[in-house]
Structure formats: C-alpha cells, structure tokens
C-alpha cells in the first residue's frame, strides 16, 4: 500500500476516535413506585444515587465502569424526616431536611463524604411554634456553595434563609412582604447568586387592558442582608413567557423571554434583559420581532407575522462569556381529549393526553441585546399519557460547542440524535446511538452533566432503572 494512502487512512481513524462517543450502561436497580431516587452526580470518580425509601435513606454507588460497587444506609437526625434537597459538590454532598424534635421543627443540613460517611450536621434554624410543616423550597447557586431555603406565607410574604455550605453558616435571614402581592397571579421566579444574593421576580399588569403599565417588580436581598426592590417596565409589550438567570461571571441579572403585541396566547418576538443589581436603571432591554424565516420554519408555511406563534416555552438561558446570552425556546403542547361519555347511562370515560414536543429555537444575543444569530433545530416528538418524560432534550455544554441531545421518536427501539451548535451558529445533526435491543428508554429531561464532555441519563422500564453514560 502506498505511504500516502496509509497516512490518509490513519488520519480518518484518528478523526473517528476523536468525535465518536462512548456509551456505557449500568447494572439495573429494581425500583418501586413509592420510592424516590435522586442522582447525586459524579464525585471522586464514582456515580452516586440517593435512594429515599420514606423512612430509610440509602446511597448506591457505581464505579468508573458503571458497575454497582456498594450501597450504604445513611443516618440523619431522625428516621422520620422530610428531605428538601440534595446538593453535591466536587468533594462531598449535602442533604437538606426537616424533622421534629421535642415538638420543635428543626431545619438541618448534613454533609456526607463520597463513601457515604457523615461528616457533620448543622442546624440552620429551629421553629418554636409551628404545628404544620411549611412548604419549604430549596434553590442553590451555580457553584453549589450557597443555598436559599424559602417559604411563601399567606400567599403574600416570603421568608428566606441563605446558607453557606462551605462555612456551614447562615449568611442572612429575611422576611419580606411585597406590596399588593398576589402570589399565584404574579409570582414569576426566585433565584440566587453565588454570593448569596436573592432575587424574587413578580410580574405585574400583564393584561391587554393594562399593557402600557406592565412591568417586572424585582425584590433583591444582598449577601449582606440589605433589601430593596425596583421595577423594569416592558415598554408597552405583554409577556408571553420568560426565564431569569444570574450571570455570576458578569455580575448581572439576565432574562430572556417572549412577548406579545396584542394576544398573550401567541408570541410575536423575543426580548433580552440585562440588569446590574446595584445600578438597575442602567439596564438593557431589547425587543426583537420574529422574522419570516423563523415563523415559516416553525409553522411550515407562510403566515401573517402579526398573528404570532403559539405553544412556545423558554426552556433555559446559557450565559456567554461576554455578557450576552443564548436563549433556548421549545415548541410544545399538551392536548387532552375524551374524558366523558356521550351516551346516556354510561359513566365518564378516561381522558387521554397527547404530548407534542417539537422544534427548538436557539437565539444568540450580544450583551447589548442585538441578535448575533438564530437557528431552528427541527425535531418531532409525540407521546401519549406518559407526562412527556421521554420528550424534550438535554443540553450538553462543552468547551467548544453545545449539543442538543434527544429521542428521535418516543418508543422503546429508537435512535438518539443530536444537534451540535458552534459558537458562530453553524450546526449539524448527528446520530448518537440506537436503543434497538438495548432495553433502555432514556429520559433526557432528567439527564445530568458530570464532566466537560460527559453526561448521565436515567432509563426506567418495567421497574428496572439503569444509568446510561455518554462520553465524547
């Protein structure tokens, strides 16, 4: 064989090895319908699962080859506890929970080693006179060093505690009561920064009759415990959907969303908001109408742009290093049919829910809100009566690109596909793997990134759960 041809073959083999992915499937776990499983993540080169049996708690571990290596029951303050959340770090993981001791409700956090050994337990707060257990919610910072535990009281007040998991100390504790707050109508989102700042976003006057007065009211508690609030007016637009996120690198509160001109049931375009918390009046707010390319790509035919597009959701925001953002939008809808018999003398029938999860729109925005590029990534997913647990996508963020990974079809034997999107907006669609004869059905909405080019996704079929790892 000529040397030139041999060099060409070697180069082709090297390229294939660089861009192919390695797929590993774990040993199965038998799951019960009343059990809860939380995938903690990858710590010290092993993969950990938290198994909540209701009164007992167990850690299951897999080795680097996803072989079951050990399991261990862990001890909390009392067996009868209420688990609020699990927060992993690079070195350990923490369990946040409540339990009653001597008629007092205690809010605890216990920290465990990768081997499941208890390292320490801290009392976050004791509640003296609570008869009913509050509906606590836990949010964590991007770097997983700070958590905020909060509850909404009487639908009009928020009580929150920020806690540092490294120092095991309360950062601040605060009760705030926004004026004229109607929680179920106005609440939009609560989030925290790496430093322990809290932002509570309320949506006001988002109605056609009051669209000139529509604004977001943002309540801010700083890491030092100072409290303030401010409003961002939406410039005579209605909000169709939105998502807020904190850009820790550029120290800004960022939002991306969809807006409507007249009908809140349809989106006419997208907006970008960037707010420096200490100088909120100097914020960016840019609105961009959908163009014909996006609308025709999504609808499949030419339509009147003024009518807008229905069934869109803002799924997430990816922060750019320069302070811009990538806005991820998905088109999905749920249709319920049946549910009542039309024949006299017969009882009501069971309703059927159809789930459609289709195209993804990715929009890259500069720090000033101007559009860098926008793409429609086509997919078509349909399922029935499954709560859409196998639908949507998982986003793997690598140093060089973004990978949108999803089930081509919602069925047992299926092809897993991906869109690989580069920083300049160029993209390609690839096949990742086939599930034929593998006895796995992947839940990509529950997948977790555990490395720069590695993620783990669960599969549950007939009471058997497996973890599937994909490495690039």
List keywords for this structure.
mainly beta, five-stranded antiparallel β-sheet, disordered N terminus, globular, 472 residues
Account of the protein in words:
This protein is mostly beta strands. The protein has a domain at 1-29 and 390-472. The protein has helices at 3-19, 183-186, 292-299; strands spanning 22-25, 29-30, 36-43, 46-52, 57-62, 68-73, 82-88, 93-101, 104-112, 118-127, 137-140, 146-153, 157-164, 169-176, 187-192, 198-204, 215-221, 227-233, 238-247, 252-260, 269-275, 284-289, 312-319, 325-338, 351-365, 371-377, 381-384, 394-397, 401-407, 415-422, 427-434, 448-451, 454-461, 464-471. Strands 1, 2, 32, 33 and 34 form a 5-stranded antiparallel β-sheet that branches. A hairpin with a 2-residue loop joins strand 3 and strand 4. The radius of gyration is 24 Å and the shape is globular. Mean pLDDT is 90; it is low at 1-19 and 341-347.
Biggest β-sheet, characterized? Answer: 5 strands, antiparallel
Counting helices, strands and paired strands, the structural category is mainly beta
Please tally the β strands and state the result. Answer: 34
Overall form: globular
Mean pLDDT: 90
Computed over alpha carbons, the radius of gyration is 24 Å
Q: End-to-end distance, in Å?
A: 32 Å
